[in-house]
Fold this sequence. Notes:
This protein has 497 residues and is an alpha/beta fold. 29% of the residues lie in helices and 19% in strands.
Amino acid sequence: MADILRLDPSDNVVTALRSLQPGQHGARERIPRGHKMAVAAIEKGAVIRKYAQLIGFARERIASGEHVHTHNTEFRRAERDQYQADPVDIVESGAATDVFAGYRRASGAIGVRNSIAVISSVNCSATAARQVAEHFDHKRLAAFPNVDGVTAYVHATGCGMADSGEGFEALQRVMWGYCRNPNVAAVLMIGLGCEINQIDWLLEAYGLEQGPGFQVMNIQERCGLRQTVMRGIEKVEAMLPVANRFVREECPASGIKLALQCGGSDAWSGISANPALGNAVDRLVRQGGSAVLAETPEIYGAEHLLTARAASPELADKILDHVGWWEDYTERNRGSLNNNPSPGNKEGGLTTIYEKSLGAVAKGGTTMLRGVYRYAEEVTSSGFSFMDSPGYDPASVTGQIAGGCNLVAFTTGRGSAFGSKPSPCIKIATNSAMFERMRGDMDINAGKILDSAAGVEDIGEEIYRFVLEVASGRQSKSEAQGLGDYEFVPWQIGAVM
């Protein structure tokens, strides 16, 4: 295996594939594995390039062979080179032949799991929702083999908020989105009764009616917690036979809506796992399936790569509007979008948000951008789309699942213990060392690309085939460990009052 990697001839830095000692490949000092080394002198204020793109500016003169990282690199907003892309529209041209075993819903959507959701409208009803769901252990579900579980989705908001505006609307989109997610067969919604986020308002806004698979109740109307839990258990017991009627049947791969995520990123994310996931996304789109990229702070500095792929100028403008909102949001709160790379990201070799974003966008593959959505908005377009969300993984994934994603693909370099429900999470490791340390958590080792044991297309095919297997019922490592009960985190956009 080579010691250094130059991703484009125009780059003035290389990435160390293994730690370099002074004298190796012109290194003037030790270069940690995954970190960058200048391959030409970079004058103070000059652009630092990786991926043939701007990733930062030299804070001081950097000599050839010096370590390039946070100590000598600065971030500032800049006009980037125009990137003229030629996105391939392969939705219509591809032959959709791949299938998986899924659950067909009356709406026409296809689920990959078959569960019952107990959703709290407000934090005050969270305990009631948890106690109802916890009643249904494996023993009590044994008579209903087609039901994957009963899960509580509770959160820390719902009151002390404005009763209108984007914050309120986003929470209602999340709640309704989880109700209609194709992995959910039946829903019980529990409120307190006096909260801002009234269940009745949700029912009215979306034209919802109660029935065998959808029930609502309030603690104050049931005269307390104990009575609410008892009656909630009775309602779920009545739903179990309804949910159990669904059985897996052959479904086209176009029924898969894949949420794209990364967390605990490192220098390898944009070189191995993210491009491989992007290759899998292209394969899925070729089958008529859908993939949804999110985390607006983690496309910052790379948004031009998405706008160049937009199917219309209006979609490109939507991307830029979301980025502008985040610039204003961080400025008002005296922050910086360059704070997004975490200490772990930086230890792993990522220096600026530009560098992180350029690697993160690779998860979206190469096809045309077909849709741009608000947080937790229903994703109605097939192919590749983008959803506005924070970079905080649980909040971002919550929005994607509310948008209809029935599976989650999550790349990580430092390692992550994230999981999600009702949509199972597939973990993809960027490097072999971490994959070996966390074998119990990782499903796919994209580090084989760095080891020269496989190519991006090989791992892309492996990810795509694994997606079909998990969609057909195979448990991912995160799912098998029960992750997902505490990762339901609606984004609190508005003021807390």
